[in-house]
Amino acid sequence: MRINRREKALLALGIVVILALVYYLSVVSPAFSRREALVRYIAMKEADLKEITALRKEWEGFQKRRVEAERILKGRGERFTLLSYLEGVSGQLGIGTKIQYMKPLFFPEAQDGSIRPEGIEIKLDGITTRDLIPFLQKIEHAGKLLNIKRIKIQKVSKDKQDVLKVTLQVHTYIPA
Prior knowledge:
Layout: H1 5-76, H2 82-93, E1 99-105, E2 115-127, H3 129-140, E3 147-158, E4 161-175
Antiparallel strand pairs: 1-2, 2-4, 3-4
């Protein structure tokens, strides 16, 4: 059996096509698939890196605030108590007689740490807004790491004068 030139050319072309197909299926296609998988993996890892970077910045912010809070706590002195501070401020502003009660707030046991929360609830009766505002400012802006967590204000008419009945909770932290 003799193969003519045209059949040889077709046979050679068929072999080249089969080799090209085998090369594509064994080398090129897996390489493209691997490249696509790597591109997806890189995109996922870049998103993870952005999240980690954001979390790191948030953590650094927490650390700075913690250091600042510890500095403020040390600046208050070892003898600082919330009750005595609030009594001093109310006496200084002349509203000590309007205090109905001051009672401590109890918090569930906190995690291990160097500071723990402390709070006092104060009830004032017959106070005017002119007296209340400086009292609240002395608490919030004292630079002693105090804040008002809850406040309830009721308007009451007394002797043809409008006064307030105020209940507030003052919170702070103390070294454990």
